[in-house]
Amino acid sequence: MPIAQAAASVALQGFELRVLHIPLVSPFTTSFGTETVREVIVVRALTSDGDGWGEIVTQEAPLYSSEYTRGAWDVAQRFLIPALLDQGVVAPEHVVDILEPFIGHRMTKAGLELAVLDAALRTEGRPLGEYLGAIRDRVPSGVSVGIQRDPAALVEVVAGYLDAGYVRIKIKIKPGRDVAETAAVRDAFGTIPLQVDANSAYTLADIDTLAELDRFDLLLIEQPLQEDDLLDHATLAGRLRTPVCLDESITSAKAAADALALGAASVINIKAGRIGGYLEAVRIHDLCRDAGVAVWCGGMLETGLGRAANAALAALPGFTLPGDVSASNRFYARDIVTQPAELVDGHIAVPTGAGLGVEIDPVALEDFTVERAEIRR
User: Annotated catalytic residue: which of 109, 170, 172, 174?
Assistant: First the structure.
């Protein structure tokens, strides 16, 4: 289902970039490290008709992805933003083509595309959800739980999220912190919707351990092997009863098509920031929907900007599994938007205002800013 009506073109005057440091409410531990502060780049597109906002979801170090804050900061200012400004008037649908000559840097491209898209839709008074093809006004909310001190601590944390109303639990795993943790959660909470996320921590040498997870009736196991191990994922999928879901491996619609053709996944996690933007996310959604493959919307500890965009994306018809579009207070005591996402009856509302449908809190934005740059024509 392609975008029904293109967004208006905008006359770009410049961009503002800000590096933010936002404290997390609690440490978030995965197989590749622990975060206590979210470092993120916020983008503001400056146009003749008003501003638009986006978010570059890189982290401080290239641990989850080859992209990282300093690299995104450099490539945005030296190459990507000048290429957009050289065009003068830009349609959001053309951002990807303008930036295509520059290899990689999908997270940076996604943040710039979102800012241009937000600016364009605000001028039209059109919500992002309507533009993308959303069919729901709220989306079911799952929560991602980092690796805890021990299984008992994990059970305690999960209990808190279930009490808060989250409809699906995802727990992070890594070698040595997998079977016991999953067993503890399943034993404590029975038949709750449960999945695990390995963030590429395993190899085929761990296939017997991964097969042990079959007994826990999981929704899926997410990204067990390395990003480029599509063939090994296909081998693993043939050995497991648990559906294999790919995350880091899905960098584009082509990567998704290749993974499905090889039988490397039966579920796909769509993260707009990782794949180059929300328009590419719609293409992957359409591909999977046509193939009868379930998709869900992952999260990357977004601020209220990216969280609003993810809610709009997750409201498309092919998103049949609860995603990681959690309430803002799951990660942040204070967000940078005036109306942070809230969990109501296990769901997050899809913003209905123009563009992203959320407004920046200028005081919070300033308080969290550690570096700022402005690039003009």
Answer: 172
